[in-house]
Write a structure and sequence with these properties.
The protein is α+β, with helices and mostly antiparallel strands. The protein is built from 17 helices and eleven strands. A five-stranded antiparallel β-sheet has the order 2-6-8-7-5, sandwiched between helices. The longest helix is centred in the last third of the chain and has 57 residues.
């Protein structure tokens, strides 16, 4: 059985709408000092450390001078004029710990070549392990606008095409002035299915490299949700948060990840219990289907789940010994308490027959799925509120610049804007982040903090609910064990009854066979 590994491969867009810069992004990833021509700003990350290797691989027709990182990303920044322009695609993926650095470089080059052949310029940097990613990993930046044959970016990434009917004719709009059209992208780089395809390619390449090391590993690129595994993904910790956690300083993100890991452990135990329960139900159905006689019809009145549970309790020791049931509690008092809880559960929920028991199982499974979905939604909202609080904390000291600017007019306003340009730009950036998450530019830190606290309470309550559901599933599993033991004992007793009442005509034949055979004529009588 091959080992299964879950991959780490994520993607995001570097956008001005988020207050980001491609030059700053590239400087941080490469650990270099780069100058942004558009803003006249220098980004110096030469003290960052942890960068093991960097390289730029240019698409066909790209100018050779773009092999310089600063030149490449300034060319992107200069071409994109809009305030909400998409500047680059950023990918991050882990590298197998079994590989050498030389193999890591070769691995990343194969990934980069895949994008380069499609017409993207690729800038990748290999980083040593850090708090956010415990493996050696790669950060890869891709250009998002195709190149013309003369080495310049194309002006339009898409165009409109007429939609034709079944006869190949244009379809007029209701106003009769124009025809229906659709947007057609020049390249498919923005297709929604790309990330799944890229993750699959990455997984196949990793399997190939691990196989070269003699390892039989199945690399799983699908998310937990698409695999049908009920797990909550942890929140990515940036370098600053990771550094605080390494120093023993607890953070909100760190606390949330610890809570998520506890919930995932509980979910894993629940998955196992659910599978065992399904198998027991299947076996129980097979046993019940074998009952075909009139005796079964008469016995059905007394053959309720409650009745079988009572019968088990009356003869508990014998059933446990005969059926090989694992006794969880060794004391009589505790066993009686468990029995009382089971019996109360059956009565409260109106469980009389095996069909009722199966419905109870189905209901608990449904409750479990609903609770898992609720936890996922709470987790998603926690991430958003965490980002919102972070944006608010960064905007708070800069808010005064906006307040002062609002009270100024004319030349004083212009003079103040020129003097505090950097601060105002930064304030605009963080305010844009707040608007991204709330749709408004209102600064409401206390409201966000209250929501964060409530989400923690909601997650805790959801965890308790999931624990209760797990306890119910475990109880139902125990009840099925007991019912199965009683049913098996009844069948054994029934077979013995049938054997006692069966005709005994064959008995003399067996006795005759046991007697010495008669001697043949003329034979020895001994």
């Amino acid at each position: 059985m091959p080992e299964t590994r879950q991959i780490h491969f994520t993607g995001d867009i570097v956008s001005r709408n988020k207050g980001q810069s491609a030059v700053e992004h590239a400087a941080y990833r490469s650990g270099e000092k780069l100058y942004l021509d558009r803003e006249g700003e220098t980004f110096d990350y030469t003290r960052k450390g942890g960068v093991l290797y960097t390289e730029i691989m240019l698409a066909d027709h790209a100018p050779v001078e773009w092999e310089d990182r600063q030149t490449l990303w300034n060319a992107v920044e200069d071409f994109e004029k809009k305030n909400d322009a998409q500047l680059a695609r950023s990918l991050e993926f882990s590298l197998p710990f079994e590989l050498t650095l030389e193999e890591d470089i070769k691995f990343c080059k194969e990934i980069a070549e895949y994008y380069r052949k499609q017409g993207m310029c690729v800038d990748f940097c290999i980083h040593a392990p850090d708090g956010g990613n415990k493996n050696i990993h790669c950060h890869m930046m891709l250009t998002v606008r195709p190149l013309t044959i003369d080495g310049t970016f194309i002006k339009h990434k898409s165009h409109r095409e007429y939609i034709l009917d079944e006869n190949g004719q244009k379809i007029p709009l209701k106003n009769g002035k124009d025809y229906k059209t659709k947007k057609v992208n020049v390249v498919d780089w923005d297709d929604k299915g790309n990330m799944e395809k890229w993750r699959a390619n990455y997984a196949l390449l990793m399997e190939k490299y691990l196989k070269n090391h003699g390892l039989d590993v199945k690399v799983e690129h699908r998310s937990y949700e698409k695999q049908g595994i009920h797990r909550i993904p942890t929140i990515h910790m940036g370098p600053h948060v990771a550094a605080m956690e390494r120093k023993g300083i607890r953070t909100r993100v760190g606390d949330m990840n610890r809570e998520i890991r506890l919930i995932n452990e509980m979910l894993e135990r629940g998955d196992k219990a659910e599978k065992e329960l399904d198998e027991k139900i299947r076996k129980m159905q097979m046993l019940m289907e074998r009952e075909k006689s009139k005796e079964k019809e008469e016995a059905l009145k007394a053959n309720t789940v409650e009745g079988m549970l009572l019968e088990f309790q009356r003869n508990r020791s014998q059933f446990i010994q005969d059926a090989g049931i694992h006794e969880k509690n060794s004391t009589k008092k505790r066993n009686l308490q468990d029995f009382a809880a089971m019996y109360a559960y059956l009565q409260t929920n109106g469980i009389k027959t095996l069909e009722d028991l199966q419905k109870a199982v189905a209901d608990e499974k449904h409750n479990r799925r609903e609770t898992i979905y609720s936890q996922n939604e709470i987790g998603k909202r926690q991430k958003e509120v965490e980002a919102l609080i972070t944006a608010g904390e960064n905007y708070r000291p800069l808010r005064k610049y906006h307040k002062t600017l609002e009270g100024l007019k004319g030349s004083k306003r212009l003079e103040y804007m020129d003097k505090n340009y950097d601060k105002l730009q930064l304030a605009d950036s963080w305010l844009a982040s707040i608007k991204h998450y709330t749709g408004k530019t209102l600064f409401q830190p206390s409201k966000w903090a209250d929501e964060s606290k409530q989400l923690v309470i909601d997650m805790r309550d959801s965890k308790k609910k999931l624990q209760k559901i797990g306890d119910n599933i475990e109880m139902l599993s125990d009840i099925l064990d007991m019912v199965q033991a009683v049913d098996t004992a009844r069948q054994v007793a029934r077979r013995k009854e049938l054997q006692k009442s069966a005709p005994v005509m064959s008995q003399p034949q067996h006795q005759e066979q046991d007697q010495p055979s008669k001697p043949k004529k003329g034979g020895d009588a001994r």
